[in-house]
Each structure stands twice: as C-alpha cells, then as structure tokens.
Amino acid sequence: MSFNQRLQEVLDQRQKQQLYRQRKTLQSTQGPEVLVDGHSFLNFSSNDYLGLAGHPEITAAFKTAANQFGVGSGASHLVCGHSSLHHQLEEALAEFTGRPRALLFSSGYMANIGTLCALLKKGDHVFEDRLNHASLLDGGLFSGARFQRFGHNEADSLDEKLSKAGDEGEKLVVVDGVFSMDGDIAPLPELVAACQKHNAWLMVDDAHGLGLLGHSGAGTVEHFELSVEQVPVLMGTLGKSLGTAGAFVAGSEELIEGLIQLARTYIYTTALPPAVAAATLTSLSIINREPQRRSHLMALIKYFRQGAQQLGLNLMASETAIQPLMIGPSGRAVEVSESLANMGFLVGAIRPPTVPANTARLRITLSAAHTQRQLDQLLEALGSLAL
Fold first, then answer.
1. 148-182, pLDDT tens digit by residue?
2. What three-state secondary structure class fits 288?
3. Which of 2, 300, 321, 352 is the most exposed place for a label (fewest CB within 10 A)?
4. Domains in the chain: boundaries
5. Per-residue pLDDT tens for 270-285?
C-alpha cells in the first residue's frame, strides 16, 4: 500500500462514520457577526466569551507594541526572546490569579503537555477526569506516570482510585475547571478534599473559566475561593475570554522555576510575539475595569436557558457560556448545524472522538458581545427545527 493510499483509507473511513472535519475560512474580525466563506453569520461558535478579540483598544495596543518590538520574538524565552512585555504580562497574570508567579507558554496544549511531563515521572500516578481536554489526557499519557481516569465530576470515584494507589510515587490529580464540551464546572472543593486526604497535588486547567467566574473574573479557583496550597498548579489560556493567544501556568516560585528548567514545550519553542503580550495586558485592564461584561454575559446565559426550556430543547446542565444542545447521532448533529447555517447561524457540531460515542451535540457558545435580540433569533431558528 502506498503512502497516500494508507491515508486515503483513513479519510474514507472518517467520511463513512460522518466524522470528517472541514475548515471554515473567517474573513472578518472575530465577533457576534462574522463573514465566513463569503457568507454572513450570527456567530455562536467562538470562545471569545467577553467579546475582546476584536476590541479596538486591544488592537491598538498590539499595533503600538509591534511598532516598538517588531512582529516576531526571534527566539525562545531562555535565549533572547523574553521581552519586557512578556515579563510584565507574567507579573500581571500572577496578580490576577492570586498566585506568586506565572509562566507564559505559546499555547494551552503546550502548557499542559509541558507541565505534566515536567511534574511527573515513571512510578508516579496521574488521575484525570474522564472528560478532560485532549491536551491534559495526552500530557498524562506522555509523562510516563501510571495513568487512571475517574468518573466525570465524581469526587468519590477519585477518592477510591487514590486510596488504591498506595504510597509509592507522587500523585497528581488533573481536571478542567470548566469542561469545554459540556460547560459544567468541576466540583473543586470536593476534589481538593480528596487530594488532601491522600496527599495528592491538584492541577486545574481553567481555559474556559478564566475571565468569567469569580468576583474579579480570575476563574473557577477564585469562584471557590481556593488557595495556591489547595490548587498548586493553575493553567489558563489567553485565546478565549482574554481575546488574544497563548497560555500560562501560575503557582509557587518553585513551580515556575521548575517549569523553566524542565518543561520542554517552554524551553524548546519560540516565545509569543511581544505584541501579543501587550494586547493581553490591555485585555486584563479591560476585564478589571468593566465587570459589566461578565454580568451581561451571565444575564444572557440565564435568558437563553429559559428560552430553550420553553421550547423543550435538550440543553445540557451548564451555567457557563458553553451551552451544549444534545443531539446524539453524529450525522443528525451535522444536519442540524447545516440547517442553522442555511438560516444564517454559525453553530458547530461536535462529534466523536471529541465527545463520547452517541453524544454528538451542537456546542452553542455565548458572548458578552451578543445582544438579547440575537439570542431571540437563534432560539426562533432552533424552535423551527424538529429537535
């Protein structure tokens, strides 16, 4: 079999299983109304939860920094790519999350892989929620530690597995703060209790909680008022609520220095462009001074769920900006997504292997940039379909 024939077999199988993925080409600024492949849509697919990705003040900060620092960072952080803007952003993120220090990574995937592989070694144990993001699962598997998954948001399941692990090797528990495909929040206080009972560490990936939850928007850890001792490893991304790109890990002085020395995805990659750091500093400033963005979004979430309930839609239990509508079969989810697209709505169909078999869904995401009228339009469209 030739190289291309081997690949074509895999592609054909994906097509038959209705799991084939195709890219859409965005031709406008990210926002509630977008131009994609030449067509205008109301956008309910983006992770731009606070509507900051196209904010003019953030764009201006990016341009100003690019004029001063150029476009590329030129090297890794440990060579000559760590600019004063990167350093300022790390300090601002540490303050925002209430942690002693923070460390920038070029993507959330790289942050999770690098952190897990740096913290764990052969003979250690890693315990992950069965619905964790792929980057967390991959990081746990790549680490070489003994890998186990526990029931989704089930502290009792975690407690049982921790109790059977024995005393040999360190134990790291890893969870999403807000689960990206279900939108539900991890029961962090219960997980903390299980970790403390069994002398385990806890790592929280707060990609979808940062900027939204907590009294200042610092995420799920702030929402539950947990300390750095209770959650020693906190990861967050910059490309969702903060509207830019990249990621960070926040924690103790020892954690950050350890990652600088040991995290290969930090050591061996080019630093983010300094202009991205400048833009993110402006994002943090806006989040701090405009809490009404969060309150408006929370009001929209409540409004949408009430409207969906009146229509009898099978929304999953979520109080966050991620509002999944369960469909079931992959083919049917694609059909509904395409029907909505024909009506002018961009709503992604999420299928296996991203979600478990027979749980394909529409992943509806809301933004502080949406209006109540736009939600009414989406609800009207959903109500017109046989769901």
1. 999 999 999 999 999 999 888 999 999 999 999 99
2. helix
3. 2
4. 25-54+291-383, 56-289
5. 999 999 999 999 999 9
**pLDDT tens digits, 133-142:** 999 999 999 9
Structure tokens at 56: 């003019």
**Which amino acid, 224?**
F
**What pLDDT score was predicted for residue 352?**
92
What CATH number matches the domain at 25-54+291-383, 3.30.230.10, 3.30.450.20, 3.40.50.300, 3.90.1150.10? 3.90.1150.10
Q: Which of 198, 240, 296, 370 is catalytic?
A: 240
240 catalytic, yes or no? yes
To the query of whether residue 180 is one of the catalytic residues in this protein, the response is yes
Catalytic residue list contains 208: yes
Question: Span 56-289: which CATH code?
Answer: 3.40.640.10
> Per the residue annotation, which of 157, 180, 337, 367 is the catalytic one?
180
The sign of the CA dihedral 111, 114, 119, 121 is: positive
Structure confidence by residue, pLDDT tens digits, 40-75? 999 999 999 999 999 999 999 999 999 999 999 999
3-state secondary structure 206-232: CCCCCCCCCCCCCCHHHHCCCCCCCCC
Distance CA 337, CA 18 (A): 13
